[in-house]
């Protein structure tokens, strides 16, 4: 037995499914998850000391590459001064100032410890601000695991949502409406029928939790216009896309400003940090200023903030996003050329430092279209690549992530691995 297998067997005795977050368990691709022991730049090493080129980057945060020396040093320096105070610190002010200076929508921001906390709090705030009950989300978008967000579409457009998780009462789900991504007609229809009931619309402005699915400009623009018209709070969930697609998030990329933004992943630089922020008049409704309660023992944790701030500082260096975007495009071209050479039905796409690969003729625009791809073929490819030392997301419904340490040589090695993987799939 490999050490990965030994660890997985042992883990399952005391941890449900052997993992602390479900996708890590390899359930959708099958096989034994790899247990990692260390990481550096674009590489990770598993418990058997096998090296992989990593295209997950901790699901996004590792945009500088793993274990960047400046980030590690910042964490070490902060740790020496104490791990947590439960009182304000100057670093939190610098963090808030940095975030507000970078993202167009942020006038004020509050730090939390995860993306889930950020979206959950933003939704409570939107409801408290508007005094309305109903929230709108889109099929295939993930916003963390708060009750009202684990909801899928009902059978008709104007019906109530259905919980996608046991433990979520239908009474909660009925306040969530689920629409199809990129569908403008549905938006108009819903707002016309019940716009004055809608507290907020929450959207991944570029979706990365149903593989990579880009919005049309009209979709985001229509969202903005309808929310303004009906006094509904527009929330861009940029937990994944914030500082991943560009230095100003998707909002800067498309020039469309939401009322509230949620952040996570990159802003913690690999440590647990989330944030939500936006218009000052809305943020003024949070405790201690206003009646919407929100709090956190470890919010603004000094060690986590040190990692996040150092990361944000490094990615503001000139040319950073140029490099990130160029390397990601090269990767997409490498996948496409390898697939083409073997006559695979395949497509790929990218934006900033995130990418999608699809075993379908064309790049999908909705959750349903992602599901029409050849998922079984992806699963085979995933294992062939794993075997070749390339670690892709273990699900056809996840996006991939590139860092600035993914050099031309690393991408060429990936192309060669893909070439061998496709070759092995012919038999
Ligand atoms: C990862 C993610 C979340 C949840 O963040 P956690 O830190 O895992 O709680 C929320 N929204 C989006 C868009 C995400 O990608």
UniProtKB/TrEMBL annotation:
Its cofactor is pyridoxal 5'-phosphate. GO terms for molecular function: glutamate-1-semialdehyde 2,1-aminomutase activity. Pathway: Porphyrin-containing compound metabolism; protoporphyrin-IX biosynthesis; 5-aminolevulinate from L-glutamyl-tRNA(Glu): step 2/2. The modification N6-(pyridoxal phosphate)lysine is found at residue 265. Its main location: cytoplasm. Gene3D superfamilies: Aspartate Aminotransferase, domain 1, Type I PLP-dependent aspartate aminotransferase-like (Major domain). PROSITE patterns: AA_TRANSFER_CLASS_3 (PS00600). It is found in: Cytoplasm. Its EC number is 5.4.3.8. CDD domains: OAT_like (cd00610). Keywords: Cytoplasm, Isomerase, Porphyrin biosynthesis, Pyridoxal phosphate. The keyword Protein transport does not apply. Homodimer. This is Glutamate-1-semialdehyde 2,1-aminomutase. The lineage of its organism: Bacteria, Pseudomonadati, Pseudomonadota, Betaproteobacteria, Burkholderiales. The gene is hemL.
């Amino acid at each position: 037995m490999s050490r990965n297998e030994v660890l997985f067997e042992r883990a399952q005795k005391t941890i449900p499914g052997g993992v602390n977050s479900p996708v890590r368990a390899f359930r959708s691709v099958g096989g034994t998850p790899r247990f990692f022991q260390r990481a550096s730049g674009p590489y990770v090493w598993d418990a058997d000391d096998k090296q992989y080129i990593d295209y997950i980057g901790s699901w996004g945060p590792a945009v500088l590459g793993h274990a960047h020396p400046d980030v590690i040093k910042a964490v070490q320096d902060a740790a020496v001064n104490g791990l947590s105070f439960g009182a304000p610190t100057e670093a939190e002010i610098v963090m808030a100032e940095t975030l507000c200076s970078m993202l167009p929508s942020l006038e004020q921001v509050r730090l939390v410890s995860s993306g889930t906390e950020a979206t959950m709090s933003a939704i409570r705030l939107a409801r408290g601000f508007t005094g309305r009950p109903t929230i709108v989300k889109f099929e295939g978008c993930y916003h963390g695991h708060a009750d009202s967000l684990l909801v899928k579409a009902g059978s008709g457009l104007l019906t109530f949502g259905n919980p996608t998780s046991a433990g979520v009462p239908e009474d909660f789900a009925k306040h969530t409406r689920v629409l199809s991504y990129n569908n403008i007609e549905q938006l108009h229809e819903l707002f016309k029928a019940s716009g004055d009931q809608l507290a907020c619309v929450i959207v991944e402005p570029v979706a990365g939790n149903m593989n990579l699915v880009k919005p049309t400009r009209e979709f985001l623009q229509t969202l903005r216009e309808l929310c303004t018209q009906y006094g509904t709070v527009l929330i861009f969930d940029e937990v994944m896309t914030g500082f991943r697609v560009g230095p100003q998030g998707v909002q800067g990329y498309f020039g469309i400003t939401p009322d509230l933004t949620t952040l996570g992943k990159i802003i913690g630089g690999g440590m647990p940090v989330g944030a939500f922020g936006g218009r000052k008049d809305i943020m003024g409704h949070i405790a201690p200023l206003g009646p919407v309660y929100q709090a956190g023992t470890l919010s603004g944790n000094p060690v986590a903030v040190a990692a996040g701030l150092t990361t944000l500082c490094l990615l503001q260096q000139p040319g950073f996003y140029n490099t990130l975007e160029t390397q990601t495009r090269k990767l997409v071209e490498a996948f496409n050329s390898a697939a083409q050479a073997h006559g695979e039905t395949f497509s790929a796409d990218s934006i900033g430092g995130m990418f999608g690969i699809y075993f379908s003729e064309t790049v999908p625009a909705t959750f349903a279209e992602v599901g029409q791809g050849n998922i079984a073929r992806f699963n085979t490819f995933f294992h062939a690549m794993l075997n070749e030392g390339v670690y892709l997301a273990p699900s056809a419904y996840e996006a991939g992530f590139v860092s600035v340490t993914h050099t031309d040589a690393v991408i060429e090695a990936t192309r060669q691995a893909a070439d061998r993987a496709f070759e092995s799939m012919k038999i």
